[in-house]
Amino acid sequence: MANNVKTFLNSKGKEKISMLTAYDYSTAKIMDESGVNAILVGDSLGMVCLGYKDTLSVTVDDMIHHGKAVVRGVKNAMVIIDMPFMSYEVSTEKALENAGKIIKETGAHGLKLEGGLEIVDTVAALVRAKIPVMGHLGLTPQSVNVFGGFKVQGKDASDAQRIIDSALALEKAGAFSIVLECVPSSLAKIITEKLTIPTIGIGAGVDCDGQVLVWQDSVGLFPDFTPKFVKKYAEIGSILTEAFKTYDKEVKSGEFPEEKHTFKISEEELKKLY
Ligand code: KIV
User: Which residues constitute the domain of residue 251?
Assistant: First the structure.
C-alpha cells in the first residue's frame, strides 16, 4: 500500500518509518523502489545540489522545480516538501498562498515547516486548508544565524523544555509528524513518548519513530563535510571519482567510444555526400 498520512500515524509504536531526502527523478525512483516510506524534498538541496553555504537562499520555485521531479519518480513513498526560508513567516495568508502553490504544482503529499510555538497558528491554518504538515524542531537549519552555527539544540533544561512545549503545540495544531534534528537522544525519547504522532530523527537517537538522512550524506556523495550522526551506507563519491577519471583517460586516449557505441549510415548513402 502506498504511504500516506494515515500509514504514518498508524506506524507509531509498531513499525519504524524510513525517510530519505531526494531532489531529482532518478534518485527518487530508486529510493521508492527500495521501499523507503517517505521522501523529503528538503531545502538541504540548497547545500547539496546548489552549493550554497546554508539553506537560506532556497526559493519556493527551487522547491517546486525539484519537488515535481521527485513526485514523477515515486509510486509508493509519501513525498513531503520543505517550505523554504521566509515563505511562511511573513503572514498566514502568504504561507497559505505558498503552500497551496507548492502542493498544486508538484502533487506532493505534505509540507514540512521549521519552528515551534512561533509557527503553530500557521501550521493550524495549513492543516485547516487540508495540507498535511510535518514539523521540524531542534537544529532547524533555517535558524542557523540565530543559533550561531549548525549546533546541537536542547542541551540545557530550559531549551529542552522549549522543544518539548513546541512539539506538543505542533501536535495540537494538527501536524502529522515532527522531525527532531540534532537533539540529545534522551530528549528525543521523552518527546517521542509524549506525542501520539511519529517523530522522525536525524541526529536524535534510536528512540524516534523513524529516521531521515540527507541521501548524499548517506552514500558519501557530499564532500564538504559529514555530520557525526551520519552513517554511510556506501562510498559512491570515490566510485564516481574513479569512473570520471577513467572516462577522462579513455576519451583522451581514443579508447572511448568503441565501435559498439556508434551508429551507421549505408555506403550507398555515404556516396551521395561530398
Ligand atoms: O532539508 C532537509 O534535508 C531536512 C532534513 C535534514 C530533515 O530538513
Answer: 239-271
155 and 257 assigned to the same domain: no
Query: Got the DSSP string for the chain?
Result: ----HHHHHHHTTTS-EEEEE--SHHHHHHHHHHT-SEEEE-TTHHHHTT--SSSTT--HHHHHHHHHHHHHH-SSSEEEEEPPTTSSSS-HHHHHHHHHHHHHHH--SEEE--BSGGGHHHHHHHHHTT--EEEEEES-GGGHHHHTSS-----SHHHHHHHHHHHHHHHHHT-SEEEEES--HHHHHHHHHH-SSPEEEESS-TTSSEEEE-HHHHTT---S---TT---S--HHHHHHHHHHHHHHHHHHT-SS-GGG-----HHHHHT--
The tens digit of pLDDT for each residue in 8-38 reads: 999 999 999 999 999 999 999 999 999 999 9
- Note the pLDDT of residue 274: 82
Question: Which protein residue's CA is at the shortest distance from atom 8 of ligand 1?
Answer: 42
Do 227 and 196 have their domain in common?
yes
Same domain, 176 and 266: no
Give the global pTM.
0.96
Q: Catalytic site residues? A: 181
Are residues 108 and 182 part of one domain? yes
Q: Are residues 267 and 198 in the same domain?
A: no
Residues with CB under 6 A from ligand 1: 21, 40, 42-44, 82, 136, 179, 181, 202, 212, 214
Assess whether pLDDT exceeds 80 at residue 1.
Answer: no
